[in-house]
């Protein structure tokens, strides 16, 4: 899924007027960070013929008559996402086959050419309406590089004329998506957008974004745009640590490939936080676990495995983006939906009510928990990122049997750092920030 292309070096564009000492997030960045959990919903026509389809061979594309999701209900998808604690959802409006989930006017390989809803279906529209119903922010995925229907595969060999035709289709379809369905919270460019020098359409995409979706968060968007976010570098929901929202590069490569600078850069010249995506089916599943195939229930991530990835994504200053593989009936399978529900319940049980909490400005704070010792095992620290990422090093102490004892330490904090610790029985804890670029502003210091 995480396709092609190099590390795109970010040139300090004139959009950014901040100094290296004062690089701050945009309003969209802050809203995105506050969401913490999102889902990316995968549905493509090839799930109806998984045994014969080949991304590099147009002749293997499923016929439109094969698209027969008899129980499709976008409300069911979005409710499952909300149950898991997600605040935003992204739909694969056009995945890799080239089949579009809206009735595109550019070519006929789309949902409106199928028998679903007698040819009147528009899944993007339904999805957006479901997001509004459940108060979920909508996002749209569109792969600008791979399109089996148009012959742009993993190893494309297009003539200049074919490439120009492909580019025109992409631009027209992006314009359809970005003008017909209202404001989009996040736009997901799988594999990025090729530069014009490389035969791509980055310059034209930039123009469309600025005109139609200027506030959208852009996953692997063109480097001259604002509101950029980067890939974490794997499809396992695991951010490296320390992990910074500032960066010097947007990363893009095949999944599970090590990329330099995955940690970000505390002195980076742009604000470009990372999103930690992973499928809800383990990666030895079909299509890396991103798309549904029968008899894969044993490969679903369990509640405990989702919790582990919550700690390694949200707990390490990254957003958590969970895949949702829709089945051939058009449903998010019940067994998977139940796991999402239990995961959301466990998050609320574990983090819904802190034992004690405070906020402060400065380099140290002592937090009284109770008169009598209580057991704690989770600690959350959050910087006010509207002021930037200022903390560079810290440690936490607990008062145990009358003496202060160091129980954990760290380097980066950013939007959120969660420390899962062994049980400690204490009445007070203390946060000591020993290195920082400017006066720390901690908006949340809580124990659980």
Write the layout of secondary structure elements.
Layout: E1 8-9, H1 27-35, E2 37-42, H2 74-83, E3 88-94, H3 123-133, E4 137-142, H4 160-180, E5 186-188, H5 202-212, E6 217-219, E7 228-231, E8 246-247, E9 249-250, E10 270-271, E11 274-278, H6 303-312, E12 319-325, H7 334-351, E13 356-361, E14 364-368, E15 374-383, E16 391-400, E17 403-410, E18 417-426, E19 428-436, E20 441-447
Parallel strand pairs: 2-3, 2-12, 3-4, 4-5, 5-6, 6-7, 7-11, 11-12
Antiparallel strand pairs: 1-9, 8-10, 13-20, 14-19, 15-18, 15-20, 16-17, 16-19
Helix share bin: 10-25%
Q: Name the strands of the widest sheet in spatial order.
A: 2-3-4-5-6-7-11-12
What fold name stands as the CATH topology of the largest domain? TIM Barrel
Main sheet properties: 8 strands, parallel, barrel
According to DSSP, the number of beta strands is 20
